[in-house]
Write a structure and sequence with these properties.
five-stranded mixed sheet; Nucleotidyltransferase, domain 5; globular; alpha/beta
Length: 121
């Protein structure tokens, strides 16, 4: 299984980025190999539709779980339609949130916001 977190930097000491669609990177953990991969979020600089493009990027990487502090309704719908589960992060550490998820200590993300449409990069 692959788990993704929006992050500020491409290293394992990174903090979680508060913006799902405009995060600079996604940190992806493969739970089978325990390997981490970082992908550049090419949607971050989009004029519009960043969340939808970001969600599709994660689907293309076969992500099944997303850990994030918040998510807009358009990207949440794309992920939900593909059966990707969203969980609300706690604190700022990406690595700690992978651990919290694996221990069953993260709650599903249910407070989906309308998005920040028209606020492109």
């Amino acid at each position: 299984m692959k788990i993704a977190v929006p992050v500020n930097d491409n290293n394992t000491k990174t903090e979680i980025c508060p913006s799902f669609g405009r995060t600079p990177f996604y940190m992806i953990k493969d739970t089978v190999s325990n390997a981490f991969d970082f992908i550049v979020n090419e949607a971050a600089e989009s004029i519009g539709g960043a969340g939808i493009k970001a969600a599709q990027l994660l689907l293309d990487k076969n992500v099944e779980i997303v850990l994030t502090p918040r998510c807009g309704e358009n990207s949440a719908k794309v992920l939900a339609d593909a059966s990707v589960k969203l969980y609300r992060t706690q604190g700022n550490s990406a690595m700690e949130n992978f651990d919290l998820y694996e221990k069953g200590k993260l709650e599903p993300l249910t407070n989906i916001h309308p998005g920040f449409h028209g606020h492109g990069g």
